[in-house]
## 1
Amino acid sequence: MKKIDIVVPCYNESEVINLFYRECKKVTDKIEGYNIRYLFIDDGSSDDTLSKLKGICENPDADYISFSRNFGKEAAMYSGLKNTAGDMVVLMDSDLQHPPALLPQMIKGIEEGYDCTATYRATRDGDPPLRIAFTNRFYKLVNKISDVNMPNGAGDFRMMNRKMVNAVVAMSEVQRFSKGIFSWVGFKTKWIAFQDVERAAGRTKWSFWKLFIYAVDGITAFSTAPLRLASVVGACVSFSAFIYLIYVILKTLICGKDFPGFASVVTLILFIGGFIILTCGILGEYIAKIYMEVKNRPVYLIGETSLKDSKEDYEIK
Ligand code: UDP
Ligand code: MG
């Protein structure tokens, strides 16, 4: 019988985790011909998520991994993919924003010969308008300037076959941006739309600032266009400065008088100064990425787990 692993990252989800397991079980119990298991990743929760997970894991179809601290959802998904051996792996949020009812359809996609069935939100009713506006901009920008294509609304809710999971796990970068990685590895993907719903309980872990940093990470992880843009704008500014210099010299020679221009000089200094600082910032983003990657620290550390042979991230490094 083929095996499906459902990986569920959980961070402070004590209000919703039992409900999630109950609702999801209703769907998976009806799926025949597959051995379906759950792997919950407790991402260093500070509430009693872990003790609730231990309760859930008394069922024979569930296991948990608990991190030594909060490493973030990307790390949780990575460790989930790394610690599963099923023929198919599903990534799913624990707040029921990813409808379990889609699972049979996702399995069908893989049976049809696709390597992955991924979902995207057809609407974003659960999000505030400002977040929707910025998210739309982000997808437009990142698809334009990078060589990966991330469909707007595509989340992490997807089912992948073993071939694709192995490819994703093989990308062992420390600063992970899964949406980009899924697209980068390629493979045949079937897309399924779903209606956005509000979380069943609890609160989102994403503040506006966290999302902004995440967006910058996404762009710098898959594109060097900002660096090129800095060089191009730098060249344009130098060229304009040169033209202006010639204009000033000629005007002084022809008109024979001093060129008064205190205001324009100050404006130019501020403009060029600002541009240099911005360029340093862009360079800094990439240098920080290199710095974190060369340290090659593990993406996650396991505090405790119910798995007998769990894989730490440093074991293969
Ligand atoms: N999550 C996690 N670690 C974190 C933040 C979130 O494992 O540091 C999990 C969280 O428990 C949930 C999923 O990632 O299962 C999505 O988080 P959330 O619902 O807060 O994000 P949103 O749906 O608002 O994008
Ligand atoms: Mg959510």
## 2
Amino acid sequence: MKHNKVLIIYTGGTIGMVQDDNGALHPFALERIIDAVPQLRHASYDIDSHQLSRLIDSSNMNPTVWVEIADAIEREYDNYDGFVVLHGTDTMAYTASALSFMFEHLAKPIVLTGSQLPLGMLRSDGRENIICALEIASTHLFTIPEVCIFFQSRLYRGNRSTKVSAEEFSAFDSFNYPSLAQAGISINCRNELVLPRHTLPLQVHKHFCTDVAILKLYPGITEAVARAILDLPSLRGIVLETYGSGNAPTEPWFINAVRNAVDRGVIVIDVTQCKSGSVELCRYEASCDISQAGVIGGRDITVEAAITKLMFLLGQYPDDREKVKKLFTQSLRGEMTI
Ligand code: ASP
């Protein structure tokens, strides 16, 4: 049987970090990663690697770097069976969501992984994560044509994932969609949960609009704070993090601020602050007013997927607000339950 080939794309993050003289962690070169996992030299698949122009702590992630990652994958798409992206955990769920929207008609796995402890440390969780991510991206046994996150024995759909712990090795979860695969003695894939493999040619979309914001509601939010964001002249889209099933204050100043934004052409998406469950507009009176003001229900989408989807759709269709609104309510890459 021919050896499958995987390309590792190294972006930075804890997995490859070393401590400087002051004890602070900063990213280090890719060779150190391969040295720290010598088992990779005996893998039953071929591994090549590509390092981004600048290694970053993922707190510095932005759409320009997403495009750099996508460019690296697109250039080599026909030469590899799968891709593993080494990434910091802090914004991994945002990058996984963004990449999922960028890659239309994906037929190969793109698996993001990282670690809570650097690979160079004895107790690092990175070895397990990188080896399993490579196995999943290279296996002949199943194909997961999706952008995923592998972390501590589980493979999640990327745009359903959220970082849930700054301490535990199981740093990610996917509250509204089951994990796609689990690594035990063997790696078991739940094929029925995986998106269908596309036969149409791959398309990579690279435009994002960053004139967006997230406004999280909390009891006591003032009109001045809400308006400072909702009235921003450059604002094109906003994710409103609401309570429960999509509820928000019914006070007139709040509804007016939201209505003014919608009337100016801002796309307002209602996403719940709850970890699991779905927005259901008008289930309570407290979501009817914003619904009537023109807010769009984001169903069970994560905040990470909602903001990247908004940036992506506004980037693709800058002059077609109706199309952005319509596409937002559809599940483009399995990011929400319809
Ligand atoms: N600050 C790091 C990063 O996101 C954390 C990590 O990699 O786990 O790059």
